[in-house]
Amino acid sequence: MQACIQAANDIGITYTQTEFVELIGRSSVDSTRIMADQLGGEENLSKVGQGVESILAQRNHAFPLKPGAQKLLEHYSSNNVMCSVASSSANAHIQHRLSYVNVLHFFSHTTSGQEVANGKPNPDIYLLAIQKLDVAVEDCIAFEDSEQGARAAIAAGLKVIVVPDLKQPSDFVIKNSFKVVDSLEDFLSTLT
Question: How far is Cα 86 from Cα 145, in angstroms, rounded to an integer?
Fold first, then answer.
């Protein structure tokens, strides 16, 4: 988010967190269309995209784990619970980011938004992830930090644990989620 705001600012466009939050959890096609509208056209989108690429390259295109993620993955691994990733990001980005923070080995599968016709909030990505796992939907839970992702998981029939990031979940998501927690650490404390 900060990279987008900074890159837009660098070309003289005020871009806000509120605008960025509209993109979270959406497919790249949807995010691109929305962001182009927000920035005033394709040319500005391209300039901002180049700026974001430069900023992220300085960080090796990686982000730190959310607090509690490592311990939660270790807990599931030690209890022989399969884990998978269903992300709107490109598969190469998913693989790189998980490898960079040394957690890729915890996941038996990854599913990218590039593999489905309809991105979040449609359930397609979760339905494909469940298919890859070869398990029943009622045996799965999803951890989500975005409105669009939570809606996708709910639509797929999953039990959803929402860990809000930049925006609090809507009443619909709160009502239809299994649990809303402040952090993964909070959720892990309910398991041990």
Answer: 12
